[in-house]
C-alpha cells in the first residue's frame, strides 16, 4: 500500500531536483568566463522503485520520481596532458623570443649609429691619418673615433650584462611563482582528499587545482600522475614536487657564486629546498629557457663581442707599439683593456695626440713628421683576416661583426617563428579543451528552459495531487447533503 | 565539434589581434621608411645591408684618399713641368753661351740667368701643399735643401690606399728630381743638378772674373748634363701623369660603385612605399572584415530569441 501523500512527496522531490539543476545552470553561466572552469553537469536518475503488491499481477514496481545521482565536470584529462606539454615548450620559446629581441635592440642594426658604423669609422679614420700624419686635427679625429668605438663596445657589453642580470631576476621571480603554485596545489590536494572521502568530487576545487597545474607546467616541465581521491602527484625528472598534500619547494640559490658578465650580479642556480646541493633537473619550460638564455645565449654573444674587442686591442697595439709618435715616442699602446667591457684608449693617447704612432721611424731623428708608414699598416688592419682567436680568424673585423648580427637575426627570427607556431598549437588545444569544458550560453539557456518547464510541470503535479486529496478530504462522505 | 561562447571569443580576439598586428607592421614600415627594423625581420637582408654599408664606407674612404692623392700628384706634376721649363731655358742659354762668338760679358749675363734659374728651381722644390713641403719626403716641415744643396729632407715615401689593396705612392723627393746619375745616391757635391748648374754658372763667370776664357767644350759639356736632368724630370713627369690618369679613372669608378651600392642598400633597407601602402589597405580591410564578422558572431545568443 502506498501512502496517500506519496504523490505530493514525489512531486516536491522533483521540484527540488529541477531547482538544483537550474542552480547548476546558473553556476555554469556565472562562471562562463572563469579561467580554468569546467562546466558542471547534473546527472539525474530515477528513484528506487517501490514494490507494490497486487493480487492479480503479483508485485508491481512503481516509480518514485527523480534524484540527483551526480554533479560532474566536463573534462578531458588527455587534453589536459597535451596542453601541459605544449605549455612548457611554448613557455621556453616565449622567453627565448623576448630575450633575443632585447639583444637585437641592443645592437640596433642596421643603422648609421650602431657599433658596426663606429667600427667602420674608426678603421677608416686611419686612412685620413695616412694622408695627414702631421695634422693635430686628424689625430684628434682618430682618437675620437676610437673613443666612440670603445664606448659603443662598453655600452653594448653592459647592456648584454644587464639583460643577463634581468634574466637572473626573472628566474628568481619565477621560482617564487612556481613555489606558490606547488604549495597551493598541495593544499588543494588535501581539501580535495577530504571532500572526496565524504562524498562526490569537489568540482570547483579540482578546476582550481588543475588551473594551478597548468600554470606550473608553463614554468617547469612537470609530469602529473593521478593519486587517490582525485589528488595528483607532480614530478620533475627523478624527484617529487607534490606528493598528495606534501610539497617540496625549489630554491633560487645564489651559492655557489658564479661569475656574471658585469662581475656583480649573483647568478642563481635552481636547487631543491631540502637538498641545496641537488640541482633541479629541468629540461623545458620558462625557467629552463631563461637558464639557457642566461648561461648560453647571452654569454655567447657577449663572448663574441669580447673576441672582436680583444682582436682590435691586441692587433692595433701590436702595430702601434712598433711605430713612432710625432714626438719620437715608441712602444706605446693605443688601446687599454682586454675585452669589450674594458676597452678604452690608453692614457698615453689621451694625454698627447703626438703619441699616436703614424711613423715607422723616429720622426724627430731618422724620418720626418710626414712619415705615415705605420699609419698605413694600421689602416691595412681593416682588411686583415689573420687573428689569434680561431673564432674570428679568417674574417675581417667588420665581417665578423656582420656574422654576429646575422646569427642574432637568424636565432631571433627562428624564435619568433617557433613561438608563433607553438602559440597557435596551444590555442588550438585550448579550443579543443574549451569545446569539452567550456560553457556554452546557448546550451545553458536551452537547459534552463527545459529545467523551467520541468519545474513548472512538477508544480502542476503538486496542484493536481492537492486537488485529488481535496476530493478525499473535503468532499467524500457528503452524499445527499 | 562543440563550439562555446568562450572559444568563439578567444578565437575572434586571436584573429583580430593577428590582423591588427599586420596593419601595425605595415604602418611602422611606412612611417620609418625602412624595410628592415631589426635583424630578425630578414637576417640575410640585414647581413647584406651591413656588407653594403661596409663597402660604401670603404669606397667613400677610397674616394677621399684618391682625391687627396690626386691633389698631391697634381702639385708634383705642375712643379715638374715648371722644372722642365726652367731646365730647357738653361739648356738654350748654355747652347748660346757655348757659342764662340759670345763675349765674356755675354756669358756673365747668361751666368746671371743660370743663377736665377737655380733660385727658381730651389723655389719650386720648396713648393708646399696644405702647409707641407711636398718634396721633402717625410720631413714635411723642412725645406728639401739647405744653402749648399745638401738634402735636409729624406726619400721616405708616402702611400695611400686608393682601392681595395691598391696603393699609390704620392710623393717624390727633391733629391730624386735633382739627382743626375740615378744609379748612385744624390750628392750635393758631385751628383746634383743644382750643383751642376752652379758649376756652369762659375764657368760662365770665369772670363769676366779674369780667370781666362773657357774653351767652348768646357761649356758644351754641361749641355749633355742638362739633357740628362731634363730626361730625368721628364721620366718623373710622365710617371706622375700616368698615375694621375689612372687615379682619375679610379675616381670615376669609385663614383659608380658608390652609386650602385647606394641603390643596392636602398633596395635592401628602404621600404617600398607603393607596395606597403597597397599591403596596408589589404591588411586594413581584412582587419575591418574580422571586426565586422566578430560583431555579428558574438552578439546574438539563444537569449535574443526566447521570450
Could you please describe the fold and organization of this structure?
The complex is a heterodimer of chains A (481) and B (307). Chain A is of the alpha+beta class and 481 residues long. In chain A, 58% of the residues lie in helices and 12% in strands. Chain A contains ten helices and 13 strands. Chain A has a four-stranded antiparallel sheet with strand order 5-6-7-8, covered by helices on one side. Chain A has a three-stranded antiparallel sheet with strand order 9-10-11. In chain A, a hairpin with a 2-residue loop joins strand 7 and strand 8. In chain A, helix 2 runs antiparallel to helix 9 (397-437), helix 3 packs antiparallel against helix 4 (136-198) and helix 3 packs antiparallel against helix 8. With 307 residues, chain B is mainly α. In chain B, 66% of the residues lie in helices and 4% in strands. Chain B has helices at residues 5-32, 43-97, 104-125, 174-177, 193-205, 216-269, 273-298, and strands at 128-129, 132-133, 159-163, 166-169. Chain B has a two-stranded antiparallel ribbon with strand order 1-2. In chain B, strand 3 and strand 4 (166-169) form a beta hairpin. Chain B is rod-shaped and about 145 Å long. The model of chain B has no long low-confidence stretch (mean pLDDT 91). Chains A and B meet through helix 2, helix 3, helix 8, helix 9 and helix 10 of A and helix 1, helix 2 and strand 3 of B.
Amino acid at each position: 500500500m502506498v501512502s496517500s501523500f506519496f504523490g505530493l512527496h514525489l512531486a516536491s522531490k522533483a521540484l527540488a531536483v529541477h531547482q538544483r539543476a537550474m542552480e547548476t545552470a546558473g553556476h555554469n553561466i556565472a562562471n562562463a568566463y572563469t579561467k580554468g572552469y569546467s562546466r558542471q553537469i547534473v546527472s539525474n536518475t530515477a528513484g528506487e522503485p517501490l514494490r507494490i503488491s497486487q493480487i492479480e499481477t503479483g508485485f508491481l514496481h512503481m516509480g518514485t520520481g527523480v534524484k540527483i545521482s551526480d554533479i560532474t565536470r566536463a573534462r578531458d584529462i588527455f587534453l589536459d596532458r597535451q596542453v601541459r606539454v605544449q605549455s612548457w615548450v611554448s613557455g621556453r620559446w616565449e622567453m627565448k623570443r623576448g630575450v633575443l629581441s632585447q639583444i637585437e635592440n641592443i645592437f640596433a642594426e642596421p643603422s648609421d649609429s650602431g657599433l658596426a658604423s663606429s667600427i667602420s669609422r674608426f678603421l677608416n679614420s686611419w686612412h685620413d691619418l695616412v694622408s695627414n700624419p702631421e695634422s693635430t686635427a686628424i689625430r684628434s679625429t682618430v682618437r675620437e673615433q676610437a673613443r666612440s668605438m670603445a664606448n659603443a663596445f662598453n655600452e653594448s657589453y653592459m647592456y648584454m650584462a644587464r639583460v643577463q642580470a634581468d634574466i637572473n631576476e626573472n628566474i628568481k621571480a619565477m621560482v617564487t611563482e612556481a613555489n606558490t603554485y606547488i604549495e597551493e596545489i598541495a593544499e588543494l590536494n588535501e581539501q580535495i582528499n577530504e571532500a572526496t572521502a565524504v562524498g562526490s568530487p569537489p568540482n570547483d576545487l579540482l578546476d582550481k587545482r588543475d588551473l594551478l597545474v597548468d600554470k606550473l607546467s608553463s614554468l617547469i616541465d612537470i609530469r602529473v600522475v593521478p593519486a587517490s581521491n582525485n589528488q595528483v602527484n607532480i614530478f620533475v625528472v627523478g624527484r617529487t614536487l607534490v606528493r598528495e598534500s606534501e610539497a617540496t619547494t625549489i630554491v633560487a640559490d645564489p651559492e655557489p657564486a658564479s661569475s656574471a658578465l658585469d662581475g656583480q650580479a649573483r647568478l642563481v642556480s635552481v636547487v631543491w629546498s631540502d637538498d641545496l646541493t641537488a640541482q633541479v633537473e629541468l629540461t623545458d619550460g620558462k625557467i629552463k629557457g631563461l637558464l639557457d638564455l642566461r648561461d648560453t645565449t647571452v654569454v655567447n654573444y657577449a663572448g663574441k663581442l669580447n673576441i672582436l674587442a680583444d682582436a682590435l686591442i691586441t692587433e692595433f697595439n701590436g702595430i702601434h707599439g712598433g711605430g713612432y709618435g710625432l714626438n719620437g715616442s715608441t712602444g706605446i699602446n693605443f688601446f687599454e683593456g682586454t675585452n669589450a667591457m674594458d676597452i678604452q684608449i690608453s692614457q698615453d693617447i689621451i694625454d698627447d695626440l703626438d703619441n699616436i704612432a703614424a711613423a715607422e721611424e723616429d720622426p724627430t731623428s731618422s724620418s720626418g713628421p710626414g712619415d705615415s708608414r705605420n699609419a698605413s699598416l694600421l689602416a691595412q688592419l681593416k682588411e686583415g683576416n689573420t687573428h689569434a682567436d680561431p673564432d674570428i680568424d679568417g674574417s675581417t673585423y667588420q665581417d665578423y661583426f656582420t656574422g654576429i648580427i646575422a646569427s642574432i637575426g637568424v636565432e631571433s627570427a627562428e624564435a619568433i617563428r617557433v613561438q608563433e607556431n607553438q602559440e597557435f598549437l596551444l590555442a588550438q588545444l585550448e579550443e579543443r579543451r574549451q569545446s569539452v569544458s567550456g560553457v556554452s550560453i546557448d546550451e545553458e539557456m536551452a537547459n534552463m528552459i527545459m529545467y523551467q518547464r520541468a519545474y513548472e510541470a512538477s508544480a502542476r503535479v503538486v496542484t493536481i495531487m492537492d486537488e485529488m486529496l481535496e476530493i478525499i478530504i473535503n468532499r467524500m462522505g457528503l452524499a445527499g447533503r | 565539434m562543440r563550439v562555446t561562447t568562450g572559444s568563439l571569443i578567444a578565437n575572434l580576439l586571436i584573429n583580430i589581434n593577428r590582423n591588427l598586428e599586420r596593419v601595425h607592421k605595415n604602418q611602422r614600415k611606412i612611417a620609418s621608411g625602412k624595410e628592415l627594423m631589426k635583424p630578425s625581420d630578414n637576417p640575410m637582408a640585414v647581413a647584406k645591408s651591413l656588407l653594403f654599408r661596409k663597402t660604401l664606407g670603404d669606397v667613400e674612404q677610397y674616394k677621399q684618399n684618391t682625391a687627396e692623392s690626386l691633389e698631391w700628384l697634381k702639385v708634383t706634376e705642375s712643379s715638374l713641368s715648371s722644372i722642365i721649363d726652367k731646365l730647357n731655358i738653361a739648356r738654350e742659354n748654355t747652347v748660346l753661351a757655348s757659342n764662340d762668338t759670345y763675349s765674356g760679358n755675354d756669358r756673365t749675363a747668361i751666368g746671371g740667368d743660370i743663377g736665377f734659374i737655380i733660385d727658381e728651381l730651389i723655389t719650386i722644390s720648396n713648393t708646399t701643399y696644405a702647409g707641407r713641403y711636398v718634396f721633402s719626403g717625410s720631413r714635411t716641415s723642412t725645406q728639401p735643401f739647405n744653402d749648399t744643396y745638401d738634402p735636409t729632407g729624406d726619400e721616405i715615401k708616402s702611400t695611400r690606399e686608393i682601392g681595395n689593396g691598391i696603393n699609390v705612392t704620392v710623393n717624390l723627393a727633391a733629391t730624386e728630381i735633382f739627382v743626375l746619375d740615378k744609379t748612385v745616391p744624390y750628392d750635393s757635391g758631385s751628383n746634383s743638378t743644382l750643383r751642376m748648374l752652379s758649376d756652369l754658372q762659375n764657368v760662365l763667370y770665369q772670363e769676366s772674373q779674369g780667370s781666362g776664357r773657357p774653351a767652348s767644350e768646357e761649356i758644351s759639356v754641361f749641355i749633355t748634363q742638362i739633357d740628362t736632368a731634363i730626361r730625368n724630370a721628364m721620366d718623373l713627369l710622365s710617371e706622375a701623369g700616368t698615375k694621375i690618369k689612372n687615379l682619375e679613372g679610379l675616381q670615376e669608378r669609385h663614383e659608380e660603385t658608390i652609386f650602385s651600392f647606394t641603390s643596392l642598400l636602398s633596395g635592401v633597407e628602404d621600404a617600398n612605399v607603393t607596395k606597403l601602402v597597397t599591403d596596408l589597405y589589404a591588411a586594413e580591410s581584412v582587419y575591418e572584415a574580422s571586426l565586422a564578422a566578430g560583431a555579428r558572431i558574438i552578439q546574438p545568443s539563444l537569449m535574443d530569441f526566447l521570450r
